[in-house]
Amino acid sequence: MPSHLCLPHSLLSFMLLCLIFLLLITPLRHAHGHHERPRQNITLAIILPETNTAYPWAWPRIGPALERAIIKINSDPNFSENPNGICSESVAPLVAVDLEFAYKPWAFIGPGCSYTASPVGLFTTHWDVPLITAGAPAIAFLDGIYPTITNTGPTHKKLGRFALRICEHFGWREYVTLMFSDNKEDDRPCYFAMEGLYEELKSINISLQDSVFEENKPPINYSQILISCSSVINEMIF
């Protein structure tokens, strides 16, 4: 049996053209007035020799090109309903449930936002499935309610401990926190960052006084706020 196959040049050329066509095919949207065709998934059926590289069209030779084409198409924002995504505390748990029932994953990677990781983390705890995230820095994830969450990134509790060491080093026993009253939108990074600092310093019986202002409702007299703070305490943490 020959170690390689010889095919007519015309047949090889035709196969090459077919392959190029498959790699370049993309979802087409045809606008009819103000209406567009609904987006659809493209499913490719691959029927190729899996390991026999005696064939020039075997999977080890064709597969990388197809995988690269899929990655390129899926990463194109023109073909995505919402390429950037948002921190949705209503959508994230629904997606998690769908993934659990459809695929039974061994682990979940993300979400990263605190408000989305909270309900998903409760589900993964119930399912006894690990959830790994570089986000979700709020201190609530460290109180034992979410035993399956592993946080690989910095947390606000660690930030609070850092500030605590500074206070201990300089002998500060009182402090003032300046914060703004934000609405419950997106991931509230300032709110949760201040929460970590607030809770850690409160845990060692340091006196607390808050000066709250609404940053989105100008005009704000920052000078007057600082003067009011300085009349109460000499050390301030921002």
From TrEMBL:
Location relative to the cell: Membrane
Q: Which InterPro entries match?
A: ANF_lig-bd_rcpt (IPR001828), ANP_Clearance_Receptor (IPR052612), Peripla_BP_I (IPR028082)
Annotated Gene Ontology cellular components are: membrane
Keywords of this entry: Membrane, Signal, Transmembrane, Transmembrane helix
Tell me where it mainly resides.
Answer: membrane
The record's listing under SUPFAM superfamilies reads: Periplasmic binding protein-like I (SSF53822)
Signal peptide positions are 1-33
* Residues covered by the Receptor ligand binding region domain: 63-214
According to UniProt, the name of this protein is Receptor ligand binding region domain-containing protein
